[in-house]
Specification:
Structural class: alpha/beta
Strand order of the largest sheet: 1-2-3-4-5
Number of helices: 7
Oligomer: single chain
Largest sheet: 5 strands, mixed
Radius of gyration: 17 Å
Distance between the termini: 19 Å
Strand content: 15-25%
Length: 190
């Protein structure tokens, strides 16, 4: 849960600051469900050790893959204004079909639509409709970089805090997010 908690922390901060985010719900419908004033963002987060290489479409379409999870969410939220987003630790393989997911709505590539339709066992029209809601977020920085960004976000809220205090606040926030994720996961399995 650590990587997901680190990726979730900025959304929690923005919510607490009263920005457009109304609520952040970890590990319920998706890894992160974010309620905005204008709709929802459902984010599927996948972490990966660097030795496994760059991400390919086949990785996110495999059993347990991010696109399969987002497709289930798509089916449950057809009448909801929402984006379905992928946050992958690491970069996509250049030249792979996964690159067509980087820009929302740029999923008309016939080969991508066919691959998704075949794997998910749906027709191409339904695959296109699903893919129109999907966006692959830019890869986050490596794990230590995400932590550093979070520390900066916390420090920006009170520049008079010293570094050890910011680190303590960060750890407490991450612990709370991880606790919420564990509780959500145990609630959904019981």
């Amino acid at each position: 849960f650590r990587y997901q908690a680190e990726a979730t922390l900025p959304f929690c901060l923005y919510c607490a600051l009263g920005q457009e985010i109304e609520a952040v719900v970890p590990e319920h419908l998706e890894d992160i469900a974010i309620e905005l004033r204008s709709g929802w963002r459902f984010i599927q987060i996948k972490s990966r050790n660097p030795e496994r290489g760059l991400w390919r479409l086949r990785d996110i379409l495999a059993d347990g893959g991010a696109l399969r999870s987002l497709f289930r969410m798509h089916q449950q939220t057809l009448d909801v204004r929402a984006t379905l987003e992928l946050l992958l630790e690491g970069a996509p393989q250049p030249g792979d079909l996964i690159g067509h997911l980087c820009i929302q709505g740029d999923h008309r590539d016939t080969e991508l639509v066919r691959a998704v339709a075949k794997t998910l066992q749906i027709d191409e029209h339904d695959a296109t409709h699903f893919l129109d809601r999907v966006v692959l977020l830019g890869p986050p920085s490596p794990r230590p970089g995400i932590r550093d960004t979070n520390l900066c976000l916390i420090h920006e809220q009170n520049p008079s805090l010293d570094h050890p205090t910011v680190q303590q606040i960060h750890e407490r926030l991450i612990e709370e997010i991880e606790r919420a994720m564990r509780e959500s996961t145990s609630d959904s399995t019981s």
